[in-house]
Structure formats: C-alpha cells, structure tokens
Write a structure and sequence with these properties.
It is built from 7 helices and 5 strands, in the order αββαβββααααα. By secondary structure, the protein is an alpha+beta fold. The strands form 2 sheets. The protein has a 3-stranded antiparallel sheet. α4 packs parallel to α7.
Length: about 210
Amino acid sequence: MKVYQAISAVMADLAVDGIGKDRKNQQQNYNFRGIDDVYNALSSVLAKHQLLMLPRVLSREVVERTTQKGGVLFYVTVEAEFDLVHAEDGSTHTIKTYGEAMDMADKATNKAMSAAYKYAAMQAFCIPTEGDNDADAMTHSVQPAKQEAKKPTLADRANLLEDALRNAPITDLEKAWAKGSALCAELDLSMPERLDELTKLYEALRDPVPF
C-alpha cells in the first residue's frame, strides 16, 4: 500500500522547512499559519509524491449569535473527512476531523472547511501547531447566550392554580377554575390525587359551610 509510503515521504519533506508562522492576528497579537500557507507548502509536495488529499463534508451546523455591538455573527461547525489516496495504486487512508469558524457575512462555512483541512494536514503530516489558533486572523466578541427560563413542572402549575383559587374573590372563583381546565385534564392523567385535592378546595371555597 503506497499511500503510507507517500505520507511518510511528505512528512520528511515538510520536516526540512516546516511552515512558518508568518501571519499576525492584529487583535490578539499572535502569529499563526494561514490556510494559504498550508496550501502553498503542501501542493508541490503532495504532487511530488503522487498523494491526493480529497475532502468530504459529512455535516454542517450553523448557530446564529449576536456580537457585543448587536451585530449578527454566524458560528459554523463542519464535520469532514479527507481521503489520502495514492495516485498509482489507489490505496487510501481516511482522516476525520472538525472545523469551526465565525463570520459576520457569508464566509463562516468557507473558514470552517479551511480550518478542518489545515488541522487535518497538520496532524497527518506532523506539522508543528504550538500556539496556532487561527480561523483566521479575526477575533470576535460574542454576547453571552441568554439562559432559558426554567419551564414549570406539572406540580408547579398545580400549585399556581391552588394559589389562584385561594386568592380569588368569590365572584372570580369560577373564572379562575375555568382557566385551569386544561391543567386539570393533565392532572387527571398524571396526578389524579392532586386533582382531587384541587377539586375539593374549589368546591369548599365556592360553597363554604355556614357557621
């Protein structure tokens, strides 16, 4: 299987010069290797050793976020596979990885695919990655996600109905009971004893025993 010989040969060639961190993130002041640097370093070496690196996106997830300034930010995650195929004998090795990226326009998916390719190549061919953190030279400030309010349980809703009955004036008692009709139907299926308690409470408040 010549694919592994080719992978080893590509690793050996890249080990001579590697890929320098010649680009700079201006916002957080660190150097990184861009996807163009990876393409430029790999293209001739892969061709030299008759090795193909063929991408395949398995899934894509998009989440819309809000920046701290109120703008829209698209956060994309792609799950991708890359087939390393030797052109002579067709032997294959497959790499699976993920790519993540953010963008305020239509580039988030492209950036995520580039990130997946770059890190798949770095890991497959043992290209040093210390301190490398680009997608690509932009840093986004994301507004923290709002926590969803806890959905009240059936028991919580039953307690609210009880409070409504106890606090309702006698003239509004029937209206309060009618508003809880849907809840009563749910209690009849899941908590019949609690429904019985509420029914007795309603009847006692509606027809109080005279002293």
